[in-house]
Structures
1.
Amino acid sequence: MAGAEGPDLIVAYLEMLAAERGAAANTLAAYRRDLDHYLAALSASGRDPLDTDASEVRAYLADLETQGLKASSAARRLSCIRGFHKFLYAEGLADTDPSAPVGGPRRGRTLPKVLSVSEVDDLLRTARERAVAPQAEDVPGERRRAVRMLCLLETLYATGLRVSELVALPRSAATTKQRYLVVKGKGGRERLVPLTDLARAAMREHLTHLTGDGPFLFPSDSESGHLTRQAFARDLKSAAAAAGIREDRVSPHVLRHAFASHLLQNGADLRIVQELLGHADISTTQIYTHVLDERLKSMVRDLHPLMDEPAESGTTPA
């Protein structure tokens, strides 16, 4: 690949990610955008990605900060750049990895937005009412859309699927006799996720409103052939508004957060939640442990053998 231009280098890197790590199409598209932006900045500075240095990478990150990019987004951009330069160095295309000594931007720990159990109950109850409302029969397609939304919500909250996994579920998911789904997640890793009776019933009802024999449970005339993430997110905001929940507080990912947080609140093991969510690293799952603070404090207060013992005379309890 001697003399390869920037775009060729990006293509080679993305091909490696797809072939060796099973990177999803959405991930590859995001990496391409990030690297196109980075290489354009290097080109504007008269630098070649095969012959640049750490100061140039730092200057690029500093420029992102002046543009107002959030620290979390800049950190993701740096991760992409590091992987790219590491690839070039490992392939012998570059003599050094200029990103190795570059530290990531400082960022605070951001906690995920989470709906309460009662709010999710309101959301689901409203969706069920809309799916059986008599007036839905009077508007073409209204009943079908309401039933589809109920199926999406019941399935998402029952499984904690990523939205990309949810909208691409096969039609066979609604007819399985098993009480679980086999889901292929990031990197092609398969995992089992249990199904509730309510989710299975919602799937079966949704199936009765489908026409044709397509492969997807949520078919659409989109390029992918199934409901898009954007369309679901838009419809979900309408469902939230109908349930009296502010639209800006709800998204498919927020419901995935609710699934994990509510399990932990009720005593689920963190490793089990990690497996259900499809996280490769438990550190990703640990962000949900903030919901356990009060439960753990209460448990120590109620169960610790010394909590009820009076302090000795003249001493102050710690």
2.
Amino acid sequence: MEGILPLWKERGMTSHDCVFKLRKILKTKKIGHTGTLDPDVDGVLPICVGKATKVVEYMMETGKGYIGEITLGYSTTTEDRSGEIVEQVSVRSIPSLESIDEAMNNMVGKITQIPPMYSAVKVNGKKLYEYARAGETVERPVRIADIKSFKRTSDLLVDEEQGTVSWKFEVACGKGTYVRTLAVDLGANLGYPAHMSDLTRILSGTFKASDCLTLAQVAEKMEQQEIEEALFPLEFGLKELASFEIDQELWDKVKNGTVLPINTVPEELLSKPIVFMYLQKAVSIYAVHPQKKEYLKPIKVLRNNL
């Protein structure tokens, strides 16, 4: 079995839970997910099966899309609704739609983020959430996030009793963006403690919600022996990389991991890794040799037989 399975991760499960269950359903151990989704978050989680696990690292680099909800009025330890309240300030002066839209628009582009304490970012070889659970604090690294778009998609929901104001949003962003932190920082820019009160991933790379199957649907497809039809070729996980079609003479070298002269490919392709294609199949990923700049070196052999 080989390919990419776009899974609709349901709430209440970790990404690792999904992999664990799929290993049983698909009766194979060679399975990997392409980017963690928190247990409270549902949505698109592409899963790589068999040889497709070789492209996991490239799929983790792809852009993501989310819909969710931001709530002003209180912040939490986890920056989402599952955490304990850290700061609470009733929203008496409700921000105008114009000021909210302007504040969201000002966060589009390259921005800096400090990852939440409850996250898997490692500091000194230990995950931040491990420090948080032990009641320890540690200096967190500043990261650059790329926000493609960040828009309000609903009117304001005012809860006078709770002293909160909420609205729906949609965001398109680069890899490694913490949408929870985006919500907290937006609240700070508007003058209130805030948290992300809801989140669903609707896009991961080229995969969208309509491509996905739930775990129950995967099990059903497996039972009906239709699972192969549900898998996307591993080539779908490499769509954001440049590709170069090779002939049989070159294929004979590439399948053996041969180092190639740099003029094998057009110069405009050299800035990023290049996917070598043979007979419409991705067979290897090459890049400029780190020591010998006049050569191309294979960084990942995907297939050595067809």
3.
Amino acid sequence: MAHDHRQDHKHGEGHDHRGNDREQRHGHGHGHDHGDIDWAEMAPLLESQAELFTPLYERALNWLAKEVTEPGLIVDAGSGPGVIACLFAETFPGARVVAVDGSAPLLERARDRAARQGAADRFDTLAGDLPEVLGELDYPADLLWASRSVHHLGDQAAALAACAERLAPGGTLAVMEGGLAPRFLPRDIGFGRPGLQARIDALEEERFGLMRAELPGSVAVVEDWQALLASAGLRHTRSRTFLLDLPAPATDRARAYVTDALTRTREVLGECLDADDRATLDRLLDADDRASVHHRPDVFVLAAHTVHAAVRPV
């Protein structure tokens, strides 16, 4: 399933809406763009952003590894270009990893990454739409990971039930959904009205709600992820939030991520902002302005993603 996870929810990786591969697909927080996406063109950017969030993903995978020991098959459902899938291969050196996505160009990047990391002999890809494509797996998964992909499916409860059916007895389903919208700048940046990012967050929440409502077969549910996992027949539900804290002054990669995220916000939500906020955003993105995110020394990246996990009864 190819997703546009530009900033907080990213393709499987991401479903960033900006992070991980997903970090960039969702726009700033909940900005979703479901147009015709050239994933081959987007892939390098998605990879770079997923790599920026690697410390967060590593902590999440290490948390899972405390209870998921020696898995035989790991499935990344909504993998994007495979940054997290390859982290799974590194974290669990005895496991076979299958990256699942709807985009052939992104899966090709995933295979190339696995080959560079010496994991090609135990790394496979599967192209198709979630959750139906999971029925094509050769055997049940010991660990099935869905990073910000479930919220792109109309019936989230049914999607989780379908994922649960593809688990081996004792297998774990881990879903990255929720957390906190990322922050890049102080509340008062020295011009414009303070609190710009909070106002953007509110607009993105509205856009996210519209996106959910327009999905085929959309079903409104209380997004209590532990309860949803339990309703799918899973047990031992638990949640943990992981932080990405890249303080100022930002590295070149972090600064590029912030610039891209705010650019996407301007493109997707610009007309929804008032004139003052549009002018502030334009100044923040003006490479010739020393107060822009291209130059200012107080740019940072602070983000929090939550992972919810549960186990299929033996």
